[in-house]
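Blinded run. Sample ID left blank on purpose so nobody reads anything into the name before looking at the predicted structure. Input follows.
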Amino acid sequence: MKIGFIGVGVMGNGMVKNLLQHGFEVNAYTRTRAKALEALDAGAVWRENVADCVRDADAVITIVGFPPDVEEVYFGEKGIIANARPGTLVIDMTTTSPRLSQRIYTEAADKGLPALDAPVSGGDTGARAGTLAIMVGGDREAFERAMPIFEAMGKSIRYMGPAGSGQHTKMANQIAIAGTLAGACEAVAYARAVGLDVDEMLSAISGGAAGSWQLSNNGPKSAHGDFAPGFFIKHFIKDMTLADGEARGRDVPLPVLEKVLAMFRALEAQGHGDEGTQALIRAYR
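Blinded prediction complete.
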């Protein structure tokens, strides 16, 4: 099976490499070719534009930055929907608006293209290890057809319901991360203030009720000033803004999310948008 993969960056390189290791052929395209060199060195074939990337593909995967980027690659004369062959499975793994996912589903269906929204969680670590959590919306038949592709990239793969359901699940995921990440950073800040060995503290509490992925993975990074992006602050702001908008539209109060979102926006305004989310610790210094 040949896959057209669009959006090869921090997450995409690891995902492409796992697809290649599972026997898939991969066409690759991203705006900046240099960002895809790792995937190309592993055996992916570079294509010069979106249309060329998808024309001979059996399935298309996209994981780009923001909702306008999703619109750009899917719609218009040079987009996926206009250039993919009928029957091609299209899978958007970007975290984006549930309503945009529903639009893709409807317009793709009109062209005979089954579409899934399948955002992921796990960061670059999960992308490289093939252990991503994948949350999927769309038709169950398309989901079952896509399972071999998902299994090459993830471990926790869940069908969540009709189009947009994967995105709504990812919104819940990001809401939960906002609180746990802030909690991990606050624990580090407190440990420093009272003179504890921060690494010993993290080891001591990670095996108990406070344990979480954020504590175990981003806790040490925040403690030691390792702000290399496994997931960009600017992208987390995008995700939290989407979640906040969906919640506000349903009169669901999310005070913790809103506080963490405000903290991240302040960090972005200070020039830290391209750092990893663990740089939230800066707000406590």
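Unblinding after everyone has recorded impressions. Strands lie at 2-6, 25-29, 45-46, 59-62, 89-92, 115-117, 120-121, 132-137, 154-161.
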